[in-house]
Write a structure and sequence with these properties.
Layout: E1 3-6, E2 11-16, E3 19-26, E4 30-38, E5 89-93, E6 103-111, E7 129-138, E8 143-152, E9 157-166, E10 172-184, E11 189-197, E12 200-208, E13 212-218, E14 230-235, E15 245-251, E16 256-262, E17 268-274, E18 281-283, E19 288-290, E20 293-299, H1 302-318, E21 331-333, H2 335-338, H3 344-357, E22 361-364, H4 392-402, E23 406-411, E24 415-416, H5 421-425, E25 445-446, H6 452-468, E26 473-476, H7 498-516, E27 521-524, H8 534-539, E28 542-544, H9 551-561, E29 570-574, H10 588-596, E30 599-602, H11 611-633, E31 635-640, E32 647-653, E33 659-666, E34 676-678, E35 688-691, E36 697-699, H12 700-706, E37 708-710, E38 718-727
Parallel strand pairs: 21-22, 21-30, 22-23, 23-26, 26-27, 27-28, 28-29, 29-30
Antiparallel strand pairs: 1-2, 2-3, 3-4, 5-10, 6-7, 7-8, 8-9, 9-19, 9-20, 10-17, 10-18, 11-12, 11-14, 13-16, 14-15, 15-20, 16-17, 24-25, 31-32, 32-33, 33-38, 34-37, 35-36, 35-38
Helix pairs in contact: 6-7, 9-10, 10-11
The site of (2R,3S,4R,5S)-2-(hydroxymethyl)piperidine-3,4,5-triol has 11 residues, from loops.
């Protein structure tokens, strides 16, 4: 049983894969955290709380000076009655009071996992997962809270969410509502977070915990490229392959907060949830609010195991698209080839080249609608620009289909240009605050998705295009962040809700469209990987990883993105050199190997390639088709970290361990360079594998522990690929 309750000692033990998570009710009313870590078969109170009278620690009970909320490892800490650390939630009563005191009132255990209404969330069958609901109450405020823990039996994953219910007669304001809070009575950890920017998403930042708080957040209305909604605690010395890791990732696409606080007695509080800044919610009497979900992953073997746990969990329990388990088409996108400057003939000529090279999907990017020749017009006018496409979209899509390729289309549905028919008709659709001027971003404004009417307009507009045209794929873009957040359709005391209401509106739109058009493959995008989060993946099974297509930059971006998201989710394209973002000239082979390490495609004018290059592109495409099942549905192992050295390497292994594909990159050529050894990971030690390019045969343990020598080469930005396939014993021909 994943969840065990010991009645006599009032202890909850959650058993998920390799991890145990233990809580206890003390003094009949406080829910206390005791342990999160490697799975233990039973718990007999070895890790007792040592009660101690600490200075400045107030006591709820005068007869016991050793008991204080200030030092208690609380499971969902409140504020105002003695715990001076970061609270997990906050309230404001109608009388202005911000104090709250939650007491335990009961629990419930059920098989399966309840849905989170209106929110993306993981799911599982009654066999896969059990859910614990712990009920707490603040009788004075009339607040009831339900802490939800869903425990996955065979994965080291626990998900958490919280429901708030106003049981009182008066409105109650939630001022903070985190989804996860864990008090760990240890502090020897490093904190890992992923920071970045447009074109430079997800850099690894590992720092030791010291005093005070390490906090990352987004206040941009989206999860953002600036900080990923991810935080992990690594035991000192933990690395890719060993040591404990405690990770949390937020299934949410809006403002978030993740922090870890070290208290004066070297305990830590690890928290994640919606950002309380502009993240309030008013509960009328009888109303409920549920927080988005946090996915908590435990790994006893470093970041590699953490990642594979996230990858499998997201593919099996989060991504709801039928494409989760399917192979994804190799695409060509016209954006970097043409930008806004195209007509039907230009597109068809690109498509013909693509089809003859073996590409499977042609994607028409930005610029096909309204009169959009630049990025400051037409968003909202989702009807075809007849100047560029006089025969319409349908005819174009059919011609592409006739070439044997699928047809995909770009949208940016959350936006509105001031130069658009939509704006002229509905200036009120803009997200804005009365009396204040608009703040423009990329020449455009944001639609007020807190309003159902606006969401329904977006649904209708996109639906019409998808119905009228044979479209197989949609790229869903979002190119600016939220400003002037306000909506005159909500009362003044609900203006703090608009950021979250925007995200709920977006989820509503995506829910309707991706359900109605479930045969369409959706890819999300936000100026590249600016909104790469599990909330988006729930609706759309792949994400454009970055607008930066430079192979060397992509090594890092994809390496760090793989910490939480599987390579099948990462759009990765070969583009021209000099690269449009960095000016770098890297070999076509390397550009191919980096892009093949994800969800493969091209984004360049194939017409500008030499015959020799075009032939090589055809070979790349053939090659990817062969290795695609391993890349997209195999296990992923990182080998060399480009954040630390002049190298990058990783390999993929099929689920049955019969096939493996390894990539090795040396970034700058060096004189007197060492000979590098590539040690693969995840193979079966006893199997024999044949190397594709030269037919040599090695055992799995030889490839993993002994490794292969990489020949020296004088070449910058060099890439190599090695493919292996299992052979039956006896086939080895004397090797
Ligand atoms: C940003 C995306 O990341 C690009 O790939 C492209 O679609 C542009 N938007 C189009 O405006």
């Amino acid at each position: 049983m994943p969840i065990v309750y010991d009645k006599s000692r009032k202890i909850f033990r959650l058993q998920a894969g390799d991890t145990s998570y233990i809580m206890q009710i003390v003094k009949e009313k406080y829910l206390v955290h005791l342990y999160w870590g490697r799975r233990i078969s039973s718990y007999h109170e070895s890790r007792r709380i040592i009660w101690k009278d600490r200075g400045f620690a107030p006591n709820p009970d005068t007869s016991d000076r050793t008991f204080s909320l200030d030092t208690l490892p609380q499971e969902y800490p409140q504020t105002g009655n003695g715990d001076f650390r970061n609270p997990a939630y906050g309230i404001r009563q109608e009388n202005g009071s911000r104090i709250s005191n939650l007491e335990y009132i009961g629990y419930e255990i059920s098989d399966g996992k309840p849905k989170l209404p209106g929110l993306p969330a993981s799911s599982g069958s009654k066999k896969d997962v059990q859910t614990l609901k712990v009920y707490m109450e603040d009788a004075v405020a009339g607040l009831k809270v339900c802490l939800l823990y869903s425990v996955f039996a065979s994965e080291s994953v626990i998900t958490r969410s919280v429901i708030f219910l106003n049981k009182g007669k008066k409105p109650l304001h939630l001022t903070k509502m985190l989804s996860m809070s864990v008090d760990i009575r240890e502090d020897e950890f490093d904190v890992l977070t992923l920071y970045g920017a447009h074109n430079n998403e997800r850099n690894m930042d590992r720092r030791p915990l010291s005093s005070g708080t390490v906090k990352i957040e987004s206040l941009r209305g989206t999860s953002s490229p600036h900080q990923a909604p991810f935080m992990a605690l690594l035991r000192k010395g933990a690395d890719e392959d060993q040591g404990e890791v405690f990770a949390a990732n937020f299934v949410y696409s809006g403002n978030f907060l993740a922090e870890v606080q070290v208290d004066p007695y070297r305990n830590i509080r690890f928290q994640m949830g919606m950002n309380p800044w502009n993240g309030e919610w008013k509960l009328e009497a009888g109303e409920m609010f549920q927080t988005p979900e946090v996915v908590m992953v435990y790994s006893k073997q470093g970041l590699g195991e953490m990642s594979r746990t996230f990858h499998k969990f997201y593919q099996n329990h989060l991504v709801r698209s039928p494409y989760a388990k399917k192979e994804r088409p190799i695409l060509i996108n016209n954006w970097e080839a043409t930008f806004f400057d195209f007509d039907e003939e230009k597109l068809l000529s690109l498509a013909r080249k693509a089809a003859s090279a073996g590409i499977e999907l042609f994607v028409l990017d930005d610029g096909w609608f309204g009169h959009r020749d630049a990025d400051d017009s037409s968003l909202g006018d989702w009807f075809v620009d007849k100047r560029k496409l006089p025969n319409g979209l349908k005819s174009l899509a059919e011609k592409i289909h006739d070439m044997g390729m699928q047809f995909g289309l770009w949208f940016e549905p959350e936006m509105i240009s001031q130069d658009s028919e939509l704006y002229r008709k509905h200036p009120d659709y803009v997200l804005h605050t009365e009396e204040r001027p608009y703040t423009i971003g990329r020449g455009q404004l944001v639609l007020d998705l807190s309003r159902k009417e606006v969401c329904d307009y977006v649904i209708a507009a996109v639906r019409q295009i998808l119905k009228d045209n044979p479209i197989d794929y949609v790229k869903w873009d979002m190119n600016r962040h939220l400003t002037d957040v306000g909506s005159m359709y909500f009362e003044p005391d609900r203006q703090g809700e608009i950021t979250h209401r925007y995200v709920l509106g977006l989820y509503y739109i995506m829910d309707v469209l991706t359900s109605e058009f479930s045969e369409i493959l959706f890819e999300s995008c936000s100026s590249g990987g600016g909104r790469f989060d599990p909330g988006m993946l729930y609706y759309m099974p792949q994400t454009w990883c970055s607008d930066n297509t430079d192979a060397v930059c992509r090594m890092k971006i994809q390496y760090a993105t793989s910490l939480t998201y599987p390579p099948i989710t990462m759009g990765a394209h070969v583009s021209v050199v000099p690269n449009q973002q960095t000016g770098r000239v890297s070999p076509l082979a390397t550009r191919g190997y980096v892009a093949m390490s994800g969800n493969f495609g091209y984004e360049l004018d194939l017409g500008n390639l030499t015959d020799e290059e075009l032939e090589y592109v055809k070979e790349q495409i053939q090659c990817y088709k062969m290795i695609r099942p391993v890349i997209q549905h195999g296990d992923f192992y990182r080998i060399r970290n480009p954040f630390n050295e002049n190298l990058a390497a990783w390999n993929f292994v099929s689920q049955d361990q019969k096939r493996a594909v390894a990539f090795f990159f040396e970034i700058l050529s060096q004189p007197a360079a060492p000979v590098r050894i590539l040690k693969l990971k995840g193979l079966h030690p006893d199997k024999l594998y044949r190397r594709y390019d030269n037919g040599e045969i090695y055992s799995g343990d030889e490839l993993m522990y002994c490794g292969i020598s990489i020949p020296l080469k004088k070449e910058d930005f060099r890439g190599e690929m090695y493919c292996f396939e299992e052979i039956e014993k006896g086939e080895e021909n004397g090797h």
